[in-house]
Design brief:
Blueprint (H helix, E strand, L loop, with lengths): L4 H14 L19 E5 L5 E8 L4 H11 L13 H8 L3 H13 L3 E5 L5 E7 H8 L3 E5 L5 E5 L13 E5 L9 E2 L2 E2 L32 H7 L3 H5 L8 E6 L5 H10 L9 E5 L12 H14 L4 E6 L4 H14 L4 E4 L1 E4 L14 H16 L3 E5 L24 E2 L7 E7 L2 E5 L2 E5 L3 E2 L6 H8 L15 E7 L18 E5 L6 E6 L6 E4 L2 E4 L6 E5 L4 E7 L1 H19 L7 H5 L14 E2 L23 E2 L1 H7 L2
Parallel strand pairs: 10-12, 10-13, 11-12, 13-15, 15-17, 17-25
Antiparallel strand pairs: 1-5, 2-4, 2-7, 3-4, 5-6, 8-14, 9-27, 14-16, 17-20, 18-19, 21-24, 22-23, 26-27, 28-29
């Protein structure tokens, strides 16, 4: 899979050249809420803010090769993972290069607050005038449609030419909040308009940790579904392992203990450690506290004796970068999951659309590479908008539907967690919807019910809710997918447009490159459909909730399951993809029976379940006990 240093440069240049924008998009597109933020003018010269200066890796090609060796059972470097100090010495900028940056900041009056232990992040505080002088970042104040104030550069920023070899990106000049979306959803999300009720809360009875009731599943049910119980029978419960959660909202730890207690799990009352990065995330339902709560409950419930470290940061550009770099630089967790993200496409500079930067994708990649080199296995939710990830951008349907994927799940060093619907009889208002077998999650399976009971006008009423998946047009096909049957290329005729609901005028935004041989996702999927979903206990959301789902469940569940696998093998596992895909391609060793279970039914509104790989459920689901046997 190696993503070579020169290849990254080529990718960024090609992506910039491929971006063809006919005209500036209407102002109504400028925010993800669908309303243009109000430009309040230039930021006061003496207004202060703190930024995260992301530095470039050295020897990226050698790092990729080292990571490949650590997960090749025939290599003498197998599972010889690096410490943070070793990583920094080999692959981070030298102390002299870092000094060049800090001297430059000091010369512009910008104070250095901290250099992360991995040598890849410099936290610095300065005024608007100082950042304008240093990075040509002309900051403006804005107010979004929700009345929240923020600031960002009116025309981006530039790194001085003599520091271009060291600085990758300056994160935090844009302080807009709610930049990223949690990948969880509830059964009632769209059903309320039809008078359809969500599933009732059912708690485990007797001494059971499971309910056996779709919509009220617990982690005990997950253990039943995916071959975890044989590991428990061997005493493998996460002892000696530490689970990491990266999130953008704070939560009440007492909610997690209440959940575990209610399903009969005996856990240490001090197992959770909270680390508030950049001051931490907000604590409210609107901020996504329920997301953090379910991440902790699910991962910790599957590995009840594991310790847990929850890293939460503000939901901002800098917060999302810093939360990963902090977790990986601390190097205390063995597995790490995140259930937040945004469409990969939004990292392209599209006029009128709230975009990040291609540098952000590379910033993620660097830290995920470090995690792999240190043996940390990383998981990310693939999204809940099926194959049409940009449908998470409001106002839909003013935007055209295009096939896109979610970031950071699209990164080749991350296990992208997709979604399935398990076999069930789903009780609805006018009868039962029968799902005969576990299948790719996509709510188009409700179409016959909707048409029969509400009319043809309600066909696709639930579009595009389902498990995220598709083809990245930024990350090339990694080596571990090169010999996998079913890997796809990007589809043609994917043109992103916006139609003004007031005037009917359509504006062209972007053409997604066709036939790109890109990284496919998801990798592994687990039950994520709210109608066959889960219980969550969340104070900020009012207590017990049934019918909760989304790939936000699959990601932490895989986190907890692989913490068990890590304990069983008495080692961190590092990059999991080669073992899961079985066929390594050139330079990789084949291993039979990697413990995956094929999903051959259903679809995520475009990619269907077939024999072999498909960007619907990926390789399929897993059998945890078989996975342990697959790793020697």
């Amino acid at each position: 899979m190696p993503i070579r240093k020169h290849r990254l440069h080529d990718l960024m240049q090609a992506a910039a050249c491929a971006l063809i924008v006919a005209t500036a998009a209407p102002a109504a597109l400028a925010g993800r809420s669908g309303a243009a933020p109000q430009d309040l003018g230039a930021t006061a010269a003496d207004a202060t803010q703190t930024v995260s200066i992301v530095l470039k890796l050295r020897h990226a090609d050698e790092l990729d090769a080292y990571i490949a060796a650590t997960v090749d059972p025939d290599s003498p470097l197998y599972h010889r993972f690096l410490s943070v100090e070793q990583f920094r010495a080999a692959f981070a900028p030298s102390r002299g290069e870092i000094r060049r940056v800090t001297d430059f900041l000091a010369a512009n009056g910008i104070a250095v607050n901290e250099v992360y232990p991995n040598g890849l992040i410099i936290k610095a505080t300065g005024t608007a005038a100082q950042f304008t002088q240093a990075f040509q970042a002309i900051l403006h104040d804005y107010r979004d449609s929700d009345g929240k104030a923020f600031r960002r550069p009116a025309r981006g920023h530039k790194v001085p030419r003599d520091l271009d070899d060291v600085i990758l990106y300056v994160a935090g000049l844009n302080t807009q909040s709610a930049q990223f979306k949690p990948h969880s959803t509830q059964a009632r999300a769209k059903a309320a308009g039809l008078g359809e009720a969500r599933p009732a809360v059912v708690l485990p009875a007797g001494n059971s940790t499971a309910t056996g009731v779709p919509g009220s599943f617990t982690t005990g049910d997950v253990a039943n579904l995916y071959g975890v119980n044989p590991l428990y029978a061997r005493g493998i419960t996460g002892q000696g392992r530490t689970i990491g959660i990266a999130t953008l909202a704070n939560f009440y730890p007492s909610d997690a203990y209440a959940y575990w207690n209610a399903i009969g799990l005996n856990v240490s009352p001090t197992r959770i450690t909270q680390v508030h990065v950049d001051g931490g995330g907000d604590l409210s339902a609107n901020a996504g506290s329920g997301e953090t709560t379910l991440d902790v409950q699910q991962s910790g419930g599957l590995a009840p004796d594991a310790k847990m470290v929850v890293y939460d940061a503000p939901n901002t550009e800098a917060g999302f970068i810093d939360v990963f770099y902090k977790a990986v630089a601390d190097n205390t967790v063995d597995t790490l999951s995140v259930s937040w993200g945004s469409p990969e496409l939004l990292n392209y500079e599209i006029p009128g659309v709230s975009s990040e930067s291609l540098g952000v994708l590379v910033a993620y990649h660097q830290v995920f590479a470090e995690a792999a080199a240190q043996g940390i296995s990383t998981f990310a939710s693939a999204g809940d908008d099926g194959a049409y990830d940009t449908n998470s951008v409001a106002p839909y349907p003013a935007f055209s539907k295009i096939l896109t994927v979610d970031s950071p799940a699209s990164d080749p060093y991350v296990i992208a967690a997709g979604g399935t619907t398990i076999a069930a009889d789903i009780q609805r208002k006018y009868g039962v919807v029968h799902v005969p077998t576990e299948q790719v999650w996509g709510w188009d399976y409700f179409n016959p019910y909707l048409i029969a009971n509400y009319g043809n006008a309600f066909k696709d009423y639930y579009f595009s809710v389902g498990g995220g998946g598709g083809v990245s047009v930024f990350w090339p096909q990694p080596d571990y997918q090169k010999h996998t049957k079913g890997i796809r290329r990007s589809e043609p005729n994917q043109v992103w447009t916006y139609t003004d609901p007031r005037t009917g005028v359509q504006s062209y935004l972007y053409t997604v490159p066709a036939n790109v041989k890109g990284r496919n996702l998801p990798d592994i999927s687990l039950n994520s459909d709210p109608y066959t979903g889960y219980l969550v206990y969340s104070t900020t959301d009012g207590g017990w909730i049934a019918g909760y789902g989304g790939t936000s469940f699959a990601s932490p569940q895989l986190n907890g399951i692989f913490a068990l696998v890590s304990q069983a093998k008495s080692s961190r596992l590092g990059l999991l993809h080669p073992m899961l895909y079985g066929s390594r391609g050139e330079g990789w060793r084949r291993q039979p029976q990697p413990g995956t279970v094929d999903i051959t039914a259903g679809d995520n509104w475009f990619y269907g379940g077939v024999t072999g790989y498909e960007p619907g459920a990926g390789l399929g689901t897993i059998n945890a006990a078989a996975l342990v046997q697959a790793i020697r």
